[in-house]
Amino acid sequence: MQSFFIFCSGADADLLDECSAGERNKYAGIGATVFFTALMAFFASAYALYTVFDSYLVAAAFGLVWGMLIFNLDRYIVSTLKKSDKKINEIWQATPRILLAIIIAVVISKPLELKMFEKEIDRVLLAEKNEMTLENQEQVGLLFAAEESAFAKAIQDLKDEVTNKEAEVEALYATYIAEAEGTAGTNRLGKGPVYKEKRDKHDAALAELTTLKPANAEKMLALETQLAEVQEREAAQLLATQPIIDNFDGLMARISALNKLPFLISFFIFLLFLAIETSPIIAKLLAPKGEYDFKLAEREDLVKSWVTQQKQQQTVMVQTDRDLNNRVYADIADEEELYNYKKKTARQLMQKQADAFYEKQKGILG
């Protein structure tokens, strides 16, 4: 277990074997912090991805990849933070790593906050869904309001026409009855010419009413059928858009709902994860220079000295070889035999070039 956690810390296991047990325990503790931070990142990302894909297998697979990524980042951060004689140098070296740790802490803490405050988030989302449902009903109603209003007005006009005609018939009926009884009109009892005239008007209006009722009833039936079709389309529109509102509980919606909850509790949870994520770095910054650090610095100095020495020797060898070659070629340049050989070779080369040019020109001219 200790060897595994030392591996997680990114320290040189062979070099730590030469150190004391306390030094090994220190780096095992740092490695354990790195491991458990990655484990928490796995659970957090798996839950966050489950809210997106709604699949345990996909969430576990992507969560494992994210956990390994966080593990490698933390291990790299801790292993590359070297102890120095000046604390300011260590702090300056750790600053970008601390910023990266803050980003990782935010990424890890948010999904777990979503799980911890799941009930409160569901309550906020329910209120938002209800509000969105009312707004959607209002908007869909506005889309069909003009058609429904037109059909309703046309139906009401037909009803009013029948009602008015009935009122007219009743008024004419009352008029000719009063004329017959002598209580109105000419005030003469009996059915005289005036009575007959008023009775004819009533009968004509009654005939119109008799014709108007079925005609308007047929028109109203057609209009009510069209109105019902519009209302069916409105209901279908509401039915089609409601699932979108019902499914409004994705990752972004939950994060938005989380931001509407009290900030202080969420902030302290973030601080907790930030403390966990930065604890290996803070531990290395606060810890004094130990046996492992001295041995590592000694080994790095040895490697640096060896590389510097090899580079210097290589430079000297190159310079020496260059000087020797210059001397050799300077001595050869004064030899008559070499001059004659080069002259002979140059003459043969020029002859071959002249022959080749002649043959080429001869081929062109035919």
TrEMBL record:
Taxonomically, the superkingdom here is: Bacteria
Pfam families in alphabetical order = DUF4407 (PF14362)
According to UniProt, the name of this protein is: DUF4407 domain-containing protein
Organism of origin is Nonlabens marinus S1-08
Q: Does the keyword Transmembrane apply?
A: yes
Q: Which residues cross the membrane?
A: 27-50, 56-73, 261-286
UniProt KW keywords: Membrane, Transmembrane, Transmembrane helix
Keyword Transmembrane in the entry? The reply is: yes
